[in-house]
Amino acid sequence: MKPFHANGRDQNTPATPGVTDPLPSKPLEKRPNPSPPSDTSVRQEVSTFSRRRFVKHSLMAGAALAVPYFIPAKALGRDGSVAPSERIVLAGVGHGPRGRYDLSAMLPEKDIQFVAVCDIQRTRREQAKAMVDTHYGDHGCKMYRDMFEVYGRSDIDAVLIATGEHWHALASILALKAGKDVYSEKPCGMTIREVQALAEAAQRYGRVFQAGTQRRSQENFQYAVYLAQSGRLGKLHTLHASVYIPRRTYDWLPAEPQPPQEECDWDRWLGPSPWRPYNRRYVEGRWRGHYDFEGGANFLDWGAHTLDLCQWANQSDHTMPVEYEANDRGIIGRYANGVKLVCDFLPDPFGDRSPQYHTATGTCPVRFIGAEGWVETGDSGKIVLSESLVKTGQRQFKKPGTSAADHARNFFDCVKSRALPVCNQNIMRRSHIACFAAAMSWELGRKITFDPVQERFVGDAEANRRISRALREPWSLNV
Length: 479
Known about the structure:
This protein is of the alpha/beta class. Among the domains are: 75-214, NAD(P)-binding Rossmann-like Domain (Rossmann fold, 3-Layer(aba) Sandwich); 215-248 and 296-401 and 425-460, Dihydrodipicolinate Reductase, domain 2. Helix content is 34%, strand content 15%. The protein contains 15 helices and 15 strands. The strands form 2 sheets. It has a 9-stranded mixed sheet. Strands 3-2-1-4-5-6 form a 6-stranded parallel sheet, sandwiched between helices. Helix 7 (165-177) runs parallel beside helix 8, helix 9 (219-230) packs across helix 12 (300-313) and helix 12 crosses helix 14 (425-444). The longest helix has 20 residues, at 425-444. The chain is globular and about 60 Å long.
């Protein structure tokens, strides 16, 4: 197999049939071949190799020839493993519950090798290292507190980013700049500007990027999208995406004594977010709902999945809705082609999801409605069809929508082929921006209009001021 981490093909081939992208991709930059040594340098090297050293090396070489030369089957890939030259070398940055879940989904892949874990909390570093070392049966995984030490390793091909979401965009951009391919958990940024900068960085540095919206890689959601795109539902007119009721708070938790940097690097945890005093609940995961650490008023926690699937069903990966208006029950959007998008607020998203959805379909449900029928599905894998389609095709799929295994596999395949993953930077950019625009209508409490080409709100200075947020020095998106 040709080397995949240096001089792959141009990043311009979608990995999924039917999903295209009009934006051009920048070819990967080829590394220059090292210059051959000059005759002078060769002569100087030979002259320093004394007769005594020559005899010593000759004796050692002879002894080596006398011993049978053995290469372990594992090193050649003959025991069912993958030879080192065929493996993707990975590192992880951020190893809380989600990061360790992703790690558990990626470790079984035979052609990947995790060599490093990074987290600002010592306990999480150690937990992730234990997972990796237990899987491989050795102690080879290195621990880091500083992600820049990980990015500086030339042997690492790709990085999993699973930090808190206030770090997702910048940590990914810095990894891309360092020449790493990136799998980033969602939401991939805190603002419209951050996801724009992230998508632009993936293009500029010619790297493979996958957003962790894994439901695009699940068969039941793929089947529902197929019904919508194939015309089996008739002319599509309404898309339903389930989301949480939005929320936000500007409060600070009470200050607590700050731990030693080696135990928890609080300044690095804050990163580009505004400074505030340490409280252990932030680093334990209870940063959610706090404006400084969560973008889009919690809309993107599910919306990054469900609205993204609606984008796909409407064949709108190249665009997004042009109007958004919030009410007490949800947010109504409209595409330029007239299709309506309904983002339903769920009072009990992990319990009874009726009457908006069938609870049996599971979490993160979506529904696509056409003139001749409708389809609904969610994380349980169950497909619910309108009476007109009840005899059509598959009704139940086995894998849950929460599984990241197939999505990770798609990323690894694209790292090797240099194709665009199913949730590449361009698809992520538009579906995330649509989520931020929908959340903006809730925050402002009024209807807003959006230009999907300019990626700006139309005639709305207040909304446009909220496209970006200031980052705490010295952090910047201009890297």
